[in-house]
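It is worth pausing here to work through a concrete case rather than discussing structure prediction in the abstract. The textbook approach is simple: state the sequence, then state the predicted structure, then interpret. We follow exactly that order.
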Amino acid sequence: MSDVKDTTYTLPVGPVHVALEEPMYFKLDVDGEIVRGVELTAGHVHRGMEALALRRTLFQNIVLTERVCSLCSNSHPYTYCMAVENLASIAVPERALYLRVMAEEIKRVASHLFNVAVLAHIIGFKSLFMHVMEVREIMQDVKETVYGNRMDLAANCIGGVKYDVDAELTRFLVESLAKVEREVRSIMNIYATDAMILRRSRGVGVLGKEDARSFAVVGPVARGSGLPLDVRVEAPYGAYPRLDVEVVTEDGCDVHSRAMVRMREILVSIGLLRRCVKDLPGGPLCAPLPEIPAGESLARSEAPRGELVYYLRTDGTDTPNRLKWRVPSYMNWDALGVMMKDCRISDIPLIVNSIDPCISCTER
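Step two, the predicted structure:
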C-alpha cells in the first residue's frame, strides 16, 4: 500500500499548455506514466456572451451568436433563428430551408477535416496533417466563393437566408465536392490501415457504450461509441425531413472510432449537398416578419460536434428577456474522466482532441 502511494503524484496540465488546443485545466493523479484520476476545471475564457445577448435586439443577436465559435459559426445563428421562428410561428420558405442545410453541411465537412488533421498533427504524422489541411482548403475556397467569408458565413436571418446560389456557384460547389470526396476516400484508407495511426489511436480513450449513454454524450463522440444519436434524424428540421440522412456509427469506442465516424460523415454530408443542389426549389429566400410575441421557445440542431440547443424567452419587446444555449462540448467533456483513466500521459492530447472540445462555445 505504501509503495503505491510513493509512486503516485499530482500533475497539473493547463490551462495554457502546448498539448492543449484551447485553455483547459487538468489535475491528473499519475502513477508513473499512467493516469489514475482526472479533475477538470473550466472557466478560463468566459466572455459573458449570454449577458451581451440581453443588451441586443433579436436581429442583432444573429451577428453575436455567429461569433460564439468559428467552427460552429453557422450552427449557432441557424439554431437561434429557429428558436425565434418557432416562437413567432414563422414558416421559412422551401428554398431557404435547403440553402440553410447546404451552409450547415459545408461547415460540417470543413470542421471534421480540421479535427482529423489535428489528430495526425498530434500523432506526429506531419505530411498527413498538411495533406488533410490542403483538402480542407478546398472547402474554405467554397465558403469564400459562395458566402464571401472563410469562417463566418452570415447565411442566416430570421425567416430565411441572406444568400442565394446560381448555376455557376452550384457547378463550382459540385466540382469542389468531387475533389474533396476523392481525397477523403484516400485519407480514410490511410487512417484505416496505417500502422502508426492504428497503434496510437486504437484502444486509446475508450468510452464504452454504457458509459456513453450514462454521460449522455452527443455527436461523433456518441456515434463513435455505437449510439445512433443525430438530431437531423431524431427531430428533423429545415430540409432534413426531405433528405435521407445516414447516421454513421462505429463500435470501437476509442479515438480511432471517433475519427472514422467524422470521415464517414464527411461523405454523408457530400451526398446531402449533392441532393440539395439537385432538389433545390425556387421561390423566396425569406418569409415576411411578424411582430415577435412574448413567450418561450426551444430549438435544437446537429452541429458538427453534436446536439446544440437554444432557449429563448421574450417579453414582447425587440430584446430577449433570456437567451441560453447548451453546446455539445459541455455534454462530452465530463466523459474525459472515463476516457483518460489508466491512459498514458502522452495519450492525453489525442483523447482531448477526439471529443473535439470547443472551449469558446462552452464557456462563451
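Step three, interpretation. The chain has a mean pLDDT of 92. The beta strands are 8-13, 25-31, 34-41, 156-157, 160-161, 295-303, 306-314, 320-326.
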